Fold:
Amino acid sequence: MLRLIDNSTLQTVALGTGALGIVSGALGSFAVLRRQSLLGDALSHAALPGIAIAFLLFGKAPLLFLVGAALAGWLATLLVMQIIRFSRIPFDTALGGSLAVFFGFGLVLMTYIRRNNIRGASEVGLERYLYGQAATMLSADLYAIAILGGFCVFMLLLFWKEMKLLSFDPAFAASIGYPIRRLDMLLTALLVVAIVIGLQSVGVVLMSALIVAPAAAARQWTHRLGVMVALAAGFGAVSGIAGTVVSDQLSAPGRVVPTGPTIVLVAVGLVVVSFMNRLLRSRPSANASLEQGPA
Amino acid sequence: MIPDQIEIVLMMALTAVACSLLGVFLVLKRMALLSDAIGHVLLLGIVVAFLITGSLRSFSLVLGAALSGLALTAVVELLSRSRLVKEDAAIGLAFPALFALGILLASLYCRNTHLDIDRVFFGIPELAPLQRLDIGVYDMGMLSRWVMTGMVLINGLFVVLFFKELKITTFDAPLAATLGFMPLLLHYVLLGLVSLTAVTAFEAVGPVLVVAYMIVPPATAYLLTDRLGRMLWLSALIGAIGATIGTLIAQELDINMAGSVATMLGLMFAATFIAAPERGLVVQVVRRMRQRQDFFGLMVLIHLLQHEGTAEEANESREAGLHEHLGWRPGDVRAIVHRVERRDWVVVNDGLLKLTDAGRNRARQALEGTRAYTEASAPSPGITHA
Structure:
């Protein structure tokens, strides 16, 4: 903990992962309520080839990596939707299949870039996007997270009423004239941004957990959306900061402990505590009200 | 003595066949994401077993990892049954959590051993030839190749011997239960084999891409056939072809093999999705266009029938004004009129459309059809007629 106070690099990293936790917790609440947790999984795995292609085209430009990742993730979800629409392939197969194929293609591009050392790839360290290496975060990355994440949270607050209605009763929202298709796209786009800004520090494989875990934990404490989102943001922040500090503590010369898994495990720890609390205090009457969760 | 490169291709193809045989049932039973889950949790199982036994080549390790796969599916089921979270969130939580634990343990304790993170992520089939199967003094070739051959045999036997049971539990579990087939037992045997296959394939595939080997070939075969037996051998064939081509390309370009195979399987799926004979995208689009044109043609016929012999016929049945009467864009009329004309349903005489006998019959038949349909679906025809 002392190092958090002295060490400005660590401060930057902890601030960044903390901010990341806030954004992913807040947006993750909506993903969990709308039963789109696995969409986050697909989006983050599918981002890998986007990063690799952005690197092949433009070289080292982290901001363009984000754009590439977002485009690839968006393309993957689009493909999943079209596969379900035009064939009898079930949703889970379409999702799992495109996730794996995109990820596999990403691995192909990454190894190709590395073996041929294109654009000095060995120094850029694309590998960190796999399982996250927050220690490499610079203040520029911090600003990117703050600006993009702040924008996401701002949009969420701006469209709060609409998002709430969309998550709990989309049919009613449509009947009173809300453009639910566009709102749905907006919410998915915000989710994509939240995932993409986390790729560098948490990695493509584990980013989906940071979307789901804080929200799932927060859901156990409250039935109110506002409280849930705020709690999830708080849990996310705690996971980010604590995970960063712990992984820094565990790392020693010659042994780098990746940040992503540590953050995810802290978040999962919060989930376990929340579950236990819920199970211990739950009474039959409480159980009855739980079961009518949002549709 | 077979050269290493060819032996690797053989191993990858065998892996794909072993995986896709079981994958057929995962796809049909909507359990595709479980193979994803199992792939992820194996890492933890392997790391823990490695920490306990200190070796990567022991039977207990394979068994431990396979058991951990089964345990995970039980955890997911429990979690979603407890109603604390919905099933998607349960899956979305459990996999990354166990995977994260696996990576963390690997990076803490297994540095500079056989089990480093790259290997864990990518699967490194390039190293497989180093492990040989020796019988006496004879070198029988790559160990993994024999392991995967065994896996293909086991899965193949399972699928063939229990074909009837698998078929009935997949398509009608309640019926299977009433007939005494024990669907739950078969379910767990299937999951156990999936875990076992994933463990043995770990070297060739790595944990994240197992799902591609398991479900992309069956998904492709699913677009091509309605018969379970055909779907099984088609997916095995597709898996083998994709793995062979993918591995050869990877060897040529020196890139990650498992990823290359996954990409190739994805491309094969995409090609089938677009061009499959009965369910392909192209066929669907063409069929939809044809139905649209047939429907518009029918509209023209019925329109003509309604005005046949009336005072407005000269005005209503004129090709030039047809788009206004039917609410179409003017440009669309020509093609549709041409279509009904070619079928001899209509003759065009100086811009005026006349029904032929065949056309009149077709229009009447269509009207009869709609009338029969509305009457059949009306709640109580007696009252409407009264």
User: Anything to note?
Assistant: Chain B touches chain A through 59 residues (CB under 8 Å). Chain B has two domains: 4-279, 283-373.
